[in-house]
Structures are given as structure tokens and as C-alpha cells.
């Protein structure tokens, strides 16, 4: 009986050595790699033209590539690195998309209606100088902003304005706030979630 068990053991050992089980080092986790289009390592923000669309531009930050859209009616000026009116932009070989409808490139001005003057027989009012208001010696309260938790409970791809700077914004990616800066001459428009001309943006002076 012992001899039979020994023979079976020897056969199993020979088979296992002849056909070893293959092992794999495959991991379910993927390793992040910077986009080859973007400079890396670098903590600066780089802007490039989109070769396929003159109304878009590419932003690189820390090895990640983001494709941005100019505001409606504007095109990307690769010389000044800013969105501008079509008359000021040379798209060269980049396709220029046709807008959905007519877009005005001239500022709209309105004239104030002329006011009618009427004669009055009332005596002029006597103005008095008001007493000066008391001045406060308290120092203003300075508040600071940290983007560490600005993307908490926000969906991926959400865009949020920087409350301290009209030209900056944040994109939420996996709960992290990725900062972005609008090109020169534009500011972040919260209504269209894009960089836009300053005259189209309602930005308090406290955010500059």
C-alpha cells in the first residue's frame, strides 16, 4: 500500500514539474501617465491651439490635457493666447466652425433719451452740510480661501469660480480641485461655464 502511494506521489510530482502553473502579475489598477502632448513635470499652465477647431484651445496642467471652448462667437488667437473676435484672429489651417446663428462682433451702444426740462417757480432748497460720520478704528476682517474642499460633493467635470480671482476657476476631477486660468483678456463666466470677455462677466471688484 505504501509503495502504491509513493508511485502516485511520484507521478504527480513529475506532472507538476513538466507543466508548471503560469502566474500572472496583471493588476486591476492602472498606472497614471502624463499626456505626451503636455510638458511634464511642471506646475505651470500652458495654452495651445486646437488643430481641429479654431474655436477651441488646449490647456495643459501637471501633465493633464484639457480641451476648452472659447465663448460663443469668439475664436482662439494663438499669437496672443486668448479668445478674440473673428476679425482679429488668423485661424490659418485650423477649421473655423460656423456659428448656430448670427453673432455680432461690434459693441452695442444705446443712447440715453433726452430729458425734457420744465420751468419751476419753487424756491431753491437750502442745502446744509451734514455732520461728519464717526470713523471706525476697527481693522477690516480679512478672509482667506482654500480650494482643498471646494469640490466636496461635486460631480466630476463640475466647474466652479474662484471666489477671490475673476480669471481663475476650478474643475472637479475625482473630488480634487484642478485650478485653471482664463487666457489673457478674458474672465470666468459662471453663466456659460467658460472664459468670456470682461464686459459679459458680472465679476465683483472684490474678486480682482
UniProtKB/TrEMBL annotation:
Q: Name one GO molecular function term.
A: chitin binding
One GO cellular component term, please give it.
extracellular region
Q: Residues annotated as region Disordered? A: 94-139
**Cross-referenced InterPro entries, in alphabetical order?**
Chitin-bd_dom, Chitin-bd_dom_sf, Chitin_bind-dev_reg
So which residues are the signal peptide here? 1-18
Q: Compositional bias (Low complexity) at which positions?
A: 108-130
Q: Which UniProt keywords apply?
A: Chitin-binding, Disulfide bond, Glycoprotein, Repeat, Signal
**Boundaries of each Chitin-binding type-2 domain copy?**
35-93, 148-205
Q: What is this protein called?
A: Peritrophin
Q: Which organism is it from?
A: Anoplophora glabripennis (Asian longhorn beetle)
Query: What high-level taxonomic lineage is stated for the organism?
Result: Eukaryota, Metazoa, Ecdysozoa, Arthropoda, Hexapoda
Gene name of this polypeptide: PE1
Amino acid at each position: 500500500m505504501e509503495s502504491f502511494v509513493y508511485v502516485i506521489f511520484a507521478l504527480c510530482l513529475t506532472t507538476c514539474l513538466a507543466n508548471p502553473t503560469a502566474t500572472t502579475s496583471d493588476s486591476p489598477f492602472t498606472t497614471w501617465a502624463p499626456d505626451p502632448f503636455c510638458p511634464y513635470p511642471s506646475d505651470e499652465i500652458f495654452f495651445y491651439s486646437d488643430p481641429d477647431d479654431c474655436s477651441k484651445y488646449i490647456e495643459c496642467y501637471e501633465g493633464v490635457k484639457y480641451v476648452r471652448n472659447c465663448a460663443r462667437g469668439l475664436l482662439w488667437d494663438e499669437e496672443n493666447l486668448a479668445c478674440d473676435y473673428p476679425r482679429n484672429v488668423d485661424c490659418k489651417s485650423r477649421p473655423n466652425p460656423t456659428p448656430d446663428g448670427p453673432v455680432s462682433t461690434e459693441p452695442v451702444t444705446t443712447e440715453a433719451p433726452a430729458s425734457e426740462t420744465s420751468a419751476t417757480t419753487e424756491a431753491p432748497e437750502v442745502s446744509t452740510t451734514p455732520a461728519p460720520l464717526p470713523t471706525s478704528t476697527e481693522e477690516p476682517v480679512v478672509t482667506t480661501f482654500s480650494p482643498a474642499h471646494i469640490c466636496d460633493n461635486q460631480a466630476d467635470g463640475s466647474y466652479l469660480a474662484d471666489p477671490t480671482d475673476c480669471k481663475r476657476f476650478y474643475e472637479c476631477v475625482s473630488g480634487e480641485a484642478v485650478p485653471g486660468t482664463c487666457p489673457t483678456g478674458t474672465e470666468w463666466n459662471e453663466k456659460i461655464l467658460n472664459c468670456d470677455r470682461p464686459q459679459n462677466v458680472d465679476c465683483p471688484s472684490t474678486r480682482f
